[in-house]
Amino acid sequence: MDESREDGAARVGVVSTDAARGPLTADAPPGLPRGVVLLLGAAAVVVAAAGLYWVSWLAGPLLLALMIVIAVYPIKTALQRHGWPAWAAVLSLLVVIFGAILLLSAFLVASVSQLAALLSQNSGRSQQLLASATQQLTKLGIDPAQSGDVANQANPQKLISSIGAVLSGLGSVVSTLVFILALLLFLAAESGGVSRRMQMIGAQRPHMTEALDGFARGTRNYLLVTTVFGGIVAVLDTIALAIMGISLALLWGVLAFITNYIPNVGFLIGLVPPALLALLTGGWKLALTVVIVYCILNAVIQSLIQPRFVGDSVGLSATVTFVALLFWAWVLGPLGALLAVPMTLLAKAVLIDADPRAQWVEALIGAEPPSAEAVAKAERKAAAKAEKKAARVRTNGDGPRPGGTLPTSP
Q1: 232 lies in which domain range?
Q2: Which of 204, 225, 250 marks a domain boundary?
Q3: Which is it for the CA torsion 248, 253, 254, 259, positive or negative?
């Protein structure tokens, strides 16, 4: 009897303890500790990054084709609204895109060949510059052997060898273009069913649909703004270099346009080749002039004006953008540097924007949030726009007229 009383008391104590802790059911087991979840998430990121690194030959062209399709999709829909068949709209866009890519590739091959010949002609000048640099380093107290090694790091002969490797590597451009063409063809052909697919996804995951729509809009805005400002910088750089008498000014303008898609460091990549050529052909004064002109143009256009237009579409802090550039360049190579921002927006949409519980991460990686005055101004602007639209609908007879009267039938 005593043992049964003790067992009953023990059972009562367990029940009361469990009631204090909260109901536990077989369908809702206790979750994993937060530390374990973070470790598993970090491990998944490492595995996914390693997988992308090993299949970069496929992931890079596929992501590039996806970005192109997202960018030109509104043009395709606009052509279809004007009566174009779907196949004609897709075919016309593919012809324009690949005509531009082939023309750009042919121009780069011809220009790089001219650059290699120009550097070969100025090999004597480069040797003089190396000897002068070695002497200056020796005067500063650096060991002659070490100063010679440091100066040889900028040997133009090595640069010429690198250009030869680039030229040989361009031989595989045709096969790469054919691969991208096939991807573009399939993606563009299936783009007509995007709306139906998004509706199916939205029925089960509405937050995912909103996140993907935001990613597409942000990517289009980013590509449009970057293309416009890249074209402006390219034209100004080409004119300035032509005035200074720098050879292959058009090539350096095209390089400035391409490197404008690389955040943070694209300007420096586009600056080095023309500055080096100016040093070989005109001396350090001409090279310094090129650096100053590029810095002025970059400071005014790319550092002051362009971020005002890009900020709303990207929504990423400068630190996150720079880290993303290093990450995607390591994973996908040079193509990853060009697609760093769109790929980061895609990862953000899938992993953060689609999950309401992960919205707190936006405060860590997003750009500086707008002030309360800016938010209120945007809300007033949206309300005024909605009121104008409603008034226009009433005026056109598509809804209630002013005064609350309904439109009468003719």
Answers
A1: 206-369
A2: 204
A3: positive
